[in-house]
């Protein structure tokens, strides 16, 4: 192992707008040996998440910025290849914050052991059975406080989190309208995932379609995109609506800075609340939620789709951009082909 | 009475930006006689409220727009001068939605009987002991869920609602920072009302001052102004903060439309919520709140300041603009000098 090369992608500069190749540095180093009480994981799957864009920015946020020169932060899945800790054995499959690299030397904290099978491929532990599923679950049920019979709207509805949110809402007995880009995504969420309706924001007027599809207003809006779509939904809230702020992917690369929701005073008109959350705050309940999600998956009541791209860590910068262009359907994962 | 003239101010056109004289029509008609089960009130005090600007706009909101040609909607106080209902007797003093006019013929619904005394002047029932006080009370305690020892920021802090919010927060055992315009207002809220600190947004950088004055962040922000000040406070929230949306006076006359809070994604960073409310939703608890406010007033634990302008209904358009120019301290009231 000491002879192997560990290829890595590091953040070389803070991006303005869409992160181009100039913000990345591709480096190699020897595969590390595990320190005392630590282990080495060979990364097989890198999770691509909109939140990554935020981690690249300077300034205070819920997580510290990735330092210039540091390996890019990323969730991932891999196999333990060396271990100096009783917590993990060589051959274990784990998920955690592994970074955009082929090998990571790490302490055991924050790693989760998972067991992929013939039915449950490894990438699913980065999707429905991982942070993505948890985000949908706690955002919709806890922050959104969804009740049976309510009307839910979710944006980024064909994305990783959005596609789970809509399905969870159906399981809870709600009416679900998904907002997505393009006819394929819209068909997928309605025909395959069981959403009640879809709005194609690329060709349809969102506010007009919401008026038709949700004449009594929107009880829970789960927002992954921000921008004009957030404003359109704010104009169609039901009384005492809950607006769950999960992301704002339409705004992350805006060179003029984030646009705020012009219609926020509708929170007053509809006595509504807008609330942000982080899935990490629910860590004590991940077990409970994971078991419930796995049960629904096994029963065929919920589907998980992963958009797997085969490549190397060097492909990461390009694959990341697919998220911001809305090219993925379901969870975007880079599966590493190792040398 | 039938010989008297009832002067009225009607909405003649929907304003763009700041409402100039061209949006008003000054009319006169005979003082009405009360219909069956109804009464006539002679208006002595007209309440000036930022919300009036919203009522002048077209489009769906929490209250229907004032129709073009209709008497301008206004809260007020007056004396019953004729009654065909057992609910009110001639000579009673009442508050309610009386309109910008000298006399109103109305049903008894929505009117409150009040009893001004030597200690409690009539205008106070449009301020601390009226809707203004209720708005502060329910917004801070219910929507804001303020707890002892927390840090509160209130904007429009020398205004009608803001000045009460800060005092209520002190009674509840919080630390209070008020944001107001100009040294006189800032001195007043600290020296007379007992706020812990004031920020003069006209001469100080709000975000910098908040950093100094609230190093651990803001637990409750009671917003009356919107715009840049809202953004500045969103950047300084504490974890699990509550942002109470009461008004957005800085934006009501913006010809380019409302500006949305660019920093709203801090709701996620700080796991915070932003929530709107309307005092009318708490009508069943007004009695309870009114008694508590009156008690604190009698004990000298809270002060009510009314900014009383003497004039006629024809002065209403000019007096209204004082609100938007930030010229009032405390509750702005037009006291009618009747012919």
Task: Give a short overview.
Chains A, B: Keywords: Oxidoreductase. Chains A, B: This is NADPH-dependent curcumin reductase CurA. The structure is a homodimer of 339-residue chains. Chain A has 339 residues and is of the alpha/beta class.
Features:
homodimer; 339 residues; alpha/beta; Quinone Oxidoreductase, Chain A, domain 1; Rossmann fold; 2 domains; seven-stranded mixed beta sheet; six-stranded parallel beta sheet; 9 helices; 15 strands; globular
The quaternary state of the protein chains shown equals: homodimer
> What percent of residues of chain A are in strands?
25-35%
Q: Which bin fits the share of residues in helices of chain A?
A: 10-25%
Number of helices of chain A: 9
Rounded to the nearest angstrom, the radius of gyration of chain A is 20 Å
Summarize model confidence as the mean pLDDT of chain A: 96
Number of domains of chain A: 2
- Sheet having the most strands of chain A: 7 strands, mixed
Q: At the first level of CATH, what is the class of the largest domain in chain A?
A: Alpha Beta
Number of strands of chain A: 15
What's the CATH topology name of the largest domain in chain A?
Quinone Oxidoreductase, Chain A, domain 1
The CATH homologous superfamily of the largest domain in chain A is called Medium-chain alcohol dehydrogenases, catalytic domain
The global form of chain A is globular
What structural class do helix, strand and pairing data of chain A support? alpha/beta
InterPro entries (chains A, B): ADH-like_C, ADH_N_2, ER, GroES-like_sf, MDR_fam, NAD(P)-bd_dom_sf
Domain Enoyl reductase (ER) (chains A, B): 17-334
Organism (chains A, B): Pseudonocardia parietis
Region (Disordered) (chains A, B): 1-29
């Amino acid at each position: 192992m000491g002879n192997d090369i560990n290829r890595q992608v590091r953040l070389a500069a803070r991006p303005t707008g869409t992160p181009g190749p100039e913000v990345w540095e591709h480096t190699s180093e020897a595969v590390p040996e595990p320190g005392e009480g630590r282990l080495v994981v060979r990364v097989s799957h890198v999770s691509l998440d909109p939140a990554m864009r935020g981690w690249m920015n300077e300034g205070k946020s819920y997580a510290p910025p990735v330092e210039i020169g540091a390996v890019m932060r990323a969730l991932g899945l891999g196999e333990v290849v060396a271990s100096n800790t009783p917590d993990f054995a060589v051959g274990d499959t784990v998920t955690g914050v592994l970074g955009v690299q082929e090998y990571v030397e790490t302490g055991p904290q924050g790693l989760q052991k998972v067991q992929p099978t013939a039915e449950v491929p490894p990438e699913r532990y980065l999707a429905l059975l991982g942070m993505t599923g948890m985000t949908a679950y706690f955002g919709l049920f806890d922050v959104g406080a969804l009740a049976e019979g309510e009307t839910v709207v979710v944006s980024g509805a064909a994305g990783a989190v959005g596609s789970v949110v809509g399905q969870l809402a159906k399981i809870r007995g709600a009416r679900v309208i998904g907002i997505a880009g393009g006819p394929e995504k819209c068909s997928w969420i309605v025909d395959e995932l069981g959403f009640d309706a879809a709005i194609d924001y690329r060709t349809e007027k969102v506010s007009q379609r919401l008026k038709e599809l949700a004449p009594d207003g929107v009880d829970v809006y789960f927002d992954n995109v921000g921008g004009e779509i957030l404003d359109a939904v704010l104009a169609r809230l039901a009384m005492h609506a809950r607006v769950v702020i999960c992301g704002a992917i339409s705004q992350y690369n805006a060179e003029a800075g984030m646009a705020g929701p012009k219609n926020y005073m509708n929170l007053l008109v509809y006595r509504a609340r807008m609330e942000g959350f982080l899935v990490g705050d629910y860590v004590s309940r991940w077990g409970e939620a994971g078991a419930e999600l796995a049960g629904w998956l096994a029963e065929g009541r919920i589907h998980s789709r992963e958009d797997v791209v085969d490549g190397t860590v060097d492909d990461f910068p390009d694959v990341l951009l697919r998220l911001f262009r809305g090219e993925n359907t379901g969870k975007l994962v880079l599966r590493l082909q190792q040398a």
